[in-house]
Amino acid sequence: VQLVESGGGLVQPGGSLRLSCAASGFTFGNYGMRWYRQAPGKERELVASIGGSGGRTNYRDSVKGRFTISRDNAKNTVYLQMNTLKPEDTAVYYCYVRAYLSDYWGQGTQVTVSP
After folding, report:
1. Termini Cα distance of the chain
2. Which of 27, 34, 60, 76 has the fewest CB atoms within 10 Å, measured from its CB?
């Protein structure tokens, strides 16, 4: 199982970014996917999740209405569209899947929201 994130960067407050996570090594459409983030000095927190078919999504309260998780099962990719970014969204964002009774994480992509 391999998860590779991309799309992070530096953006001004109010800006947007789209993160991508390319997955391989498992039957992608059979598994729910999650995005987590970890800010310096803080614990890793769940940001959003999506079911295998893409029909069920959940978000932490602080990102509801601003972030959208989606997936393209034909491309084995999950996305996180982040709009109206705030400085408190600054963190390393990780893609996650629990497959074959094990936890798998990507390497993370840095998102920095700063003037």
Report:
1. 37
2. 27
Q: How far is CA 115 from each of CA 2, 10, 92, rounded to the nearest angstrom?
A: 34, 9, 18
What pLDDT tens digit does each residue of the chain (115 aa) get?
999 999 999 999 999 999 999 999 999 999 999 999 999 999 999 999 999 987 899 999 999 999 999 999 999 999 999 999 999 999 999 999 999 999 999 999 999 999 9
Cβ proximity of 4 and 77 under 8 Å: no
In degrees rounded to 5, what are phi and psi of residue 73?
-70, -25
For residues 75 and 78, give the distance between their C-alpha atoms in angstroms, rounded to a whole number.
9
What is the rounded distance in angstroms from the CA atom of residue 38 to the CA atom of residue 24? 23
Q: Read off the tokens for 3.
A: 């998860």
Tell me if residue 62 falls in helix, strand or coil: helix
| Residue 37 dihedral angles phi and psi, to the nearest 5° | -145, 155
The rounded Cα 89 to chain-centroid distance in angstroms is 12
Q: What is the DSSP code (8-state) at residue 25?
A: S
